[in-house]
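Ticket opened by: R.M.
Priority: normal
Category: complex prediction / small molecule

The reporter submitted a protein together with zinc ion and asked that the result be attached to this ticket for the collaborator who will pick it up next week. Submitted input follows.
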Amino acid sequence: MLLLSFYGFGSRTEMRRIDFTNTMVASSETARDINRGVLLNLIRRRQPISRADLARVSGLQRSTVSLITEQLIREKWVVYGAMGRLPRGRRPTFLRLNDRRAIVVADLRPGQSTVAVADVNGHFLSQEAMPTPTDPKTTLEQLLARMRHQMKLHSDRVFEGVGISFSGRFDLTSKHVVFAPNLKWSEFDLKGPIEKATGMWVDIENAANACVLAEVWFGHIEKVRDLVVVTIAEGLGTGIFSNGQLVRGLNGMAGEFGHVSLDPDGPACACGQRGCWEVFASNRAALRYYHESNASSKGPTFQDLMVLAEGGDPLALKALEKMAHAIGRGMRMIVAGLAPEEIVVAAELTRMWDRFGPIIEAEMVSGVLGGRAPRLRPAIAEPSMARLRGTVALVLQKHFGPSIRGMQTSTAPKRAVVRAQ
Ligand SMILES: [Zn+2]
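Result attached by the on-call engineer:
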């Protein structure tokens, strides 16, 4: 029963069909690994937590909980926290994640990138920005220099791995960047050289997929199984979480709704086509709308445009409204194709959600063919933080067991965890 609930297959009110054709027989080792993941995730979400509460919440026997938590303490994933207080009897010892373990993360995007260090709870210890060079080789060199600097600042931590999110798609099979039109990169190996230089495992993910991870890992949406995150900045990307799994598709290319051409006579797109959803709905599109309505403007940045709009500038507001209409219209593709429960928008535009959210929603809802419309909301964190937090989850999820199905990378962690037999 525990196993079924954990995978989301069963609940008191609904029993889903299990696909036995793709199910392996559970060995005792598999069961132990699953229980380990269950407990590690419970500690992560509910820390500080006592062993008694872990047993109660998980449904596992006290002896099993004790065995696994001792193992997690030996592996230094979990440490003793504060002592609890009870009216009488023994004072329980609370467990929490060991925040001496850290991850070095980077968010690569056109113009400016960020390199940071976070602990296993997703708390950022430090970060620095760097201009993003246009050629991949220079980007690699500068990225490595910043990573070394960040790690040096926290030499007392144990580094678990490297997580990178970027404006493009990464193929887990070839381990190459395969599509990054806004960074203007052609196919190349971003992973190998960083692993060689740092001696650590490197996980790379598309920025929108990283935002999905941030929502699922750090948000409180355990019950949502169908979610799409739309990330809007220089470009427009989507990350798909369908039936409880991240959808990566062939070559990791799933989710490129932003490069579906909606008007073959429309403006040229960085991908080589014309009239993609992205050229009508990205930050760059809003700047173009503003420029078209105000010939004397010197071309503000998107940040300037937001400040103008927040100050009530009618031309800035009009440009952003046009962008909001285009975002909502494009979402009809997502609604028709995937019918998610929720669509989450990760964009700077969400700072004015009260104004632009209803425009996006009205356009999206008008394309609903039947049933209930998806819920629409802004992301839990501002876009750059969502991408960075997603990379923390990207590195950690392989250690925390199968808590997010489909998000396991195709490869084993370099830092092997010795499991007690
Ligand atoms: Zn395009």
